[in-house]
């Protein structure tokens, strides 16, 4: 049974009075053989340029918020790595001082890590300086951490290049 879907009786639109009230009516939806896209219009598919730009902007904002925290955490991890080894060197130097009452002659070899090389500098009677220097090509290549241990047991720590 062919129906005119109320084109003539409702002013020429496919959504006549019968089509609006009864979804089972053959006139309830447009008769289109085209595929309906994402937007619900025939032939339209995918995302618009504005939608893609908005997603990129949102991701850039999230990255801008997260990046400083990530970099700060990385810096702290590199510094903690150096400080841990320097603490071990400091304990060895202090042990040497307790036994000999001088820092002269402190010679504990410390293996370099991927990021740091370590050494003693200026170990005299009443103080000893330990240095951690960033390895060339590492993320901390320009960084230096210096610990000076005094005969009183006090220590000073200076870092630069971060």
Features:
162 residues; alpha+beta; four-stranded antiparallel sheet
Give a topology summary:
Blueprint: H1 17-21, H2 49-100, E1 116-121, E2 127-134, E3 144-150, E4 155-160
Antiparallel strand pairs: 1-2, 2-3, 3-4
Explain what this protein looks like in three dimensions.
- With 162 residues, the chain is of the alpha+beta class.
- The chain is built from two helices and four strands, in the order ααββββ.
- The protein has helices at 17-21, 49-100; strands at 116-121, 127-134, 144-150, 155-160.
- A hairpin with a 5-residue loop joins strand 1 (116-121) and strand 2 (127-134).
Summarize, please.
With 162 residues, this protein is α+β, with helices and mostly antiparallel strands. The chain is built from two helices and four strands. The mean pLDDT is 80.
Terminus-to-terminus distance: 82 Å
Poorly predicted residue ranges: none
Kindly state the mean pLDDT as a whole number? 80
Number of strands: 4
């Amino acid at each position: 049974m062919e129906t005119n879907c109320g084109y003539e009786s409702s002013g020429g639109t496919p959504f006549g009075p019968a089509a609006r009230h009864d979804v089972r009516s053959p006139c309830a939806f447009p008769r289109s053989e085209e595929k309906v896209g994402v937007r619900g219009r025939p032939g339209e598919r995918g995302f618009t340029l504005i939608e893609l730009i908005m997603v990129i902007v949102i991701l850039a904002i999230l990255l801008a918020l997260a990046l400083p925290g990530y970099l700060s955490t990385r810096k702290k991890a590199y510094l903690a790595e150096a400080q841990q080894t320097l603490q071990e060197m400091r304990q060895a130097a202090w042990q040497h001082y307790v036994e000999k009452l001088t820092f002269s002659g402190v010679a504990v070899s410390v293996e370099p890590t991927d990021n740091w090389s370590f050494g003693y500098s200026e170990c005299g009677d009443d103080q000893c300086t330990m240095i951690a220097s960033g390895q060339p090509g590492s993320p901390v290549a320009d960084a230096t951490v210096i610990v000076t241990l005094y005969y009183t047991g006090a220590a000073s720590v200076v870092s630069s290049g971060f």
